[in-house]
Amino acid sequence: MKKLLFVILSAFVFTACSTEKSRLNRAMDFALQNKKEFEKVLEHYKNDSLKLKAAEWLISNMIYQISIDSASVGGNQPYYDLLIEYWQQHRNYNDVGTYYLCDSLYKVRNDTLTSIKSRYKKDIESISSQFMIRHIDQSFESWCKYPWSNNVCFEDFCRYILPYKCKSDFWENAFPYLRNQYAYLADSMSNGTIVEVGKFIENDIKTKFRQDGPFMRAHPYMTPTTQSNYIRSMLGECIQANITAALALRSVGIPAIIDYIPYWGNSNSGHSWVKIIGDSTSRLYDNKQIMFSGEQDKLINDMFWFEFIFPSLPGIPEDVNIRSCRTVPKIYRSHFEIINETVSPEDPSIPILFRDTGLEDVTDEYLECSDVVIPLTNNIGTERWAYLCCYDPDNISWVPVAQGQISGKSAIFKTVGRNIVYLPAIYQRGNVIPIGAPFLLTSESRKKELVPADDNHSVMKLYSKVPYRTNVLYWAYSMVNTQFKLANNKNLSDTITVHNIDKIPYYGQQVVIDENKCYRYGIYEFGGHPGFIGELEFWGIDDSGKEIKLKGEPIGNPGLYGQTNRELIDGNRISFFSRDWNKESFVGFDFGRPYRISKIIYHPRSDDNGIVPGEKYELFYWDNEWKSLGQQEGGNDKTLEYYNVPKNLLFRLHNLTRGQENRIFIYEQGKQIFY
User: Fold this and answer.
1) How far is CA 34 from CA 59, 64, 124, in A?
2) Which of 165, 198, 307, 652 has the smallest C-beta neighbourhood within 10 Å, fewest atoms?
3) DSSP letter string over 423-436?
């Protein structure tokens, strides 16, 4: 028996070694003229079996790795040189904004640069032996130096410490640069656990790194750029911040990698974060739309909750769908290691997400999830894969987030997030082709197909084209128990209160003032509340008896963060006024002379997605494509009404006058429920 076991084990070891050797030989062939550089590395470590094995692992898994050619993005280098210099001097961008720095340089240079066209090169054809040897030596040094690395086995060392990059790009000096930045911190916390030290370093980077997606999108010539630029300038988007953190952790012997959500289930774009290997998730996220409720939610706060989190609030408007958190369809881990041997990064027959040779599905580590089986009724030919897609509002399209194996007359999807609307589809020639009706995977794991029912809604009353997001709710809630006042004396000693906001204002509000006396000053009093307000209008009666919108000079609090009290009257409902806490507790207008005030119109700080009277809207429903239910103007009650619409449909509402934001929704029990 023992002899048989020995034979089996020997065969297993031989097979494993043969596979690894085959991978290495294949990689050496891919290296072309750069093969000699890797031969130098292998020769260098011929007497150190463990480092030799690490070198072979790196080379074997380098085949599909590409990195940006710095020469192709040199056009934005002067801007990053400026940002890097500023960061090195000040260690923050608080005193002068990135917009100011880059826009000023743009004007001085009289630049015509509007975008960057990048080129990429294959790592395996370009990486030097000098870099490889230095990196391997430094990785081993970090692995062996710190006590928290004692329990990191060689396999995990290779996967989570040794790789010189996360995702696509790399900087040859990233490891020594970040190690120089954080070795002292690691040394000072040598008695801490791997998670304690890792979280401390990660939080330090996240605090300092300016994650500014709006800036990057407003300046398209800033991206793409080199890893050197965004690490040294500490400026980029969330993925760059996380890559910086992961590399910093690896530089001090902490195994780390990037986990990410390819696309939110109920929001735009996706998300990423640093996963410290050894940090286990003790609570699975359920995707339920509930308010942040306390200590148990802190674990998932950074990943899934919106910026403003609080328990349920009194006075939330009825019939309004609140989006208190983001929902998650899938979570993946992106390895340097090739773990999907049959995948090609250049295969046009599958979506880009699933061409990643290092893609690992880790959804069930984070989520309460379900397996889903989709019956196939359409003729899909020889397709091997089907996809579940989430709605992309920016492009009015569907984004593949989950890949399922087609078996017979069904497609099987493992571990997908609940409480999300999915569209089953195949992928052909770069296009998503629906193969069934969209469906809601409920919190109870029930699949509810969204197909027209036999009966109709007698009336659909629509309040918004997107859900009432938690941050918007927070801004509106900050106005509760604030007051509108009128006065005639310049020192405002004779103010009278004409309205108290006693409930959460839902987008724009109008207050009728029953006051016969004339007043020169109109006041909005913050009291002890945060000072957010979007627009403010005072209406009065002129000498002819006509009701007019009063013009006046802004008075009171001057504003903060670049927002001035002029933001109140700019006609832009998205711009807003922020109170300076060190100045007056009110903002308002001097009308120049007294008027009889007839009404006050105000808008909380918001995303301006409510129904606006007079603006034109169009309602669509999904029936294998988006089909129109007609156009309407917003009513004076800030709603739209559609009649005799079939039940159980999937809808989206678009503002044709202005604004691009939209979300899919269903209509149940007289309420829009967004997904």
Assistant:
1) 11, 15, 7
2) 307
3) EEEEEETTEEEE-S
Residues paired with residue 322 on neighbouring β-strands, in sequence order: 468
Q: Which residue type occupies 271?
A: H
Closest CA to 541 of 581, 596, 580: 596
How far is residue 391's CA from residue 266's CA, in Å, rounded to a whole number?
8
Contact yes or no for 397/411 (Cβ under 8 A):
no
Every domain of the chain and the residues it spans: 31-254, 332-449, 456-466+610-674, 470-603
Contact 164, 179 (CB under 8 A): no
Helix (H, G, I), strand (E, B) or coil at 632: strand
- Does this model's pTM top 0.85? My answer is yes
Tens-digit pLDDT profile for residues 142-171:
999 999 998 899 999 999 999 999 977 899
Q: Which residues contact 126 (CB under 8 A, 6 or more apart)?
A: 34, 67
At 29, is the pLDDT very low, low, confident or very high (cuts 50, 70, 90)? very high
* Measured CA distances, 374 to 329, 350, 385, 449, 556 (Å): 16, 19, 12, 11, 61
CA-CA distances (angstroms) from residue 157 to 27, 193, 530?
21, 17, 49
Express each pLDDT in 345-370 by its tens digit.
Answer: 989 999 999 999 999 999 999 999 99
Identify whether the C-beta of residue 164 lies closer than 8 Å to the C-beta of residue 175.
yes
Q: Which residue, chain included where needed, has tokens 């062939």?
A: 29
Neighbouring C-beta atoms of residue 340, cutoff 10 Å: 15
